[in-house]
Amino acid sequence: MKVIIGLGNPGKQFDGTRHNIGFDVIDALSDKWNIPLDQAKHKGLLGTGMVNGEKVLLLKPLTYMNLSGESISAVLNFYKLSHEDIVVIYDDLDLPPGKLRLRQKGSAGGHNGIKSTIAHLGTQEFNRIRVGVGRPTDKRSVPDFVLSRFTKDEQELMSKVVDICGKACENWLEADFLIVMNKFNG
């Protein structure tokens, strides 16, 4: 089984915000693969199904961003999975809007959802897709910026990026993550 995890914050007030790009990818995959997110357990919203012969679990942690690791570790423990069986998708301020960076390990880079994930998994070694959302160019604080919605121009770009993230996840079901990294980085 492979687990695809999108980080974000639950609640309508956070829909469409920069911080919820991970949730956006999971919602798109749910629609594309006809895997309803209909199970509320392990502190998250889950959906399970088969894609290209691989059992897939889609996860949106409902713990709020800063506690994402609680849900992720609960799912891995319940299904007796390894950190190698997951990919975590999340926003990254240090990348320009729309740029993707796939990695198999690394630090949290200041991202509280990833800090929580590392703390709960006990390792920095797990597959991740960082989605660039850029930094504020005005006087907004970082928290205000990541909780803001994309501009109209950015929405068009991010819609394409969500689709590309979905394609990367689908490739991962059939190929080693290193191959997927080489194909989709940038």
From TrEMBL:
| Documented EC number(s) | 3.1.1.29
What family does the database annotate?
Answer: Belongs to the PTH family.
Q: Which NCBIfam families match?
A: pth
How it assembles, according to the record, is: Monomer.
Main localization is: cytoplasm
| Sites where the protein binds tRNA | 14, 64, 66, 112
Q: Which Gene3D superfamilies match?
A: Peptidyl-tRNA hydrolase
Q: Name one GO biological process term.
A: rescue of stalled ribosome
Q: Where along the chain is the active site annotated? A: 19 (proton acceptor)
Q: Where is the signal peptide?
A: none
Annotated GO molecular function terms are: peptidyl-tRNA hydrolase activity; tRNA binding
Which InterPro entries does the UniProt entry name for this protein? Pept_tRNA_hydro (IPR001328), Pept_tRNA_hydro_CS (IPR018171), Pept_tRNA_hydro_sf (IPR036416)
- Annotated site residue numbers, Stabilizes the basic form of H active site to accept a proton: 91
| Record-marked site positions (Discriminates between blocked and unblocked aminoacyl-tRNA) | 9
Task: Answer whether the UniProt record assigns the keyword Ligase to this protein.
Answer: no
Tell where it localizes: Cytoplasm
- Cited function: Hydrolyzes ribosome-free peptidyl-tRNAs (with 1 or more amino acids incorporated), which drop off the ribosome during protein synthesis, or as a result of ribosome stalling.
User: Which CDD domains is this protein grouped with?
Assistant: PTH (cd00462)
Checking PROSITE patterns in the record gives:
PEPT_TRNA_HYDROL_1 (PS01195), PEPT_TRNA_HYDROL_2 (PS01196)
Q: What's the name of the protein?
A: Peptidyl-tRNA hydrolase
Which reactions is this enzyme annotated as catalysing?
an N-acyl-L-alpha-aminoacyl-tRNA + H2O = an N-acyl-L-amino acid + a tRNA + H(+)
**Gene symbol?**
pth
Alphabetical GO CC annotations of the entry are: cytoplasm
